[in-house]
# Entry
Amino acid sequence: MVDMPDYPLQEVLIIKNRRVDAAEKVVKKRKGELEIEQKKLSECERARDKVKQHRMDKLCQIRYEMDHGTNTAKIQQMKAYITVVNEKLAEEEKKVTAQKQQVKVAEKNLEEAFEELRKKRKEVEKLDKHREEWSKEMRKEMELKEAIEQNELGSTMFLSNLRVRKRK
# Structure
């Protein structure tokens, strides 16, 4: 019986599998980064919404004061405060916009990591398919060699037996 030879590209397959593992780790890392950026975005949105609500409350308060008649100095003071709140709201909007950009970057990085993982898995699948084909070919060759050996062994035994019979 002839032993099956080792797959010649086994080392390459091992390296490719390691690369797939590394790519999976990168994908996991990118997912974590995306989640962090999304949490930051929701925090920024919460802060912005809080400022927005405060602005609406102050506008309602100004309207109430105007409707119920109050002095001009107090209304001027409230309008100045609304200006400050509007500036704060603009700042918060900028933070939200900047954080949305960060989320987009994180999403893009995750997509790229997924694409890289897909490519690496495809390489491993190709090598696995090649290995299967190679194994089939090797089995056929081994069966052929074994058949030839059996045929030679049978011929040798036949000739040996034939000589023994002739001598008798």
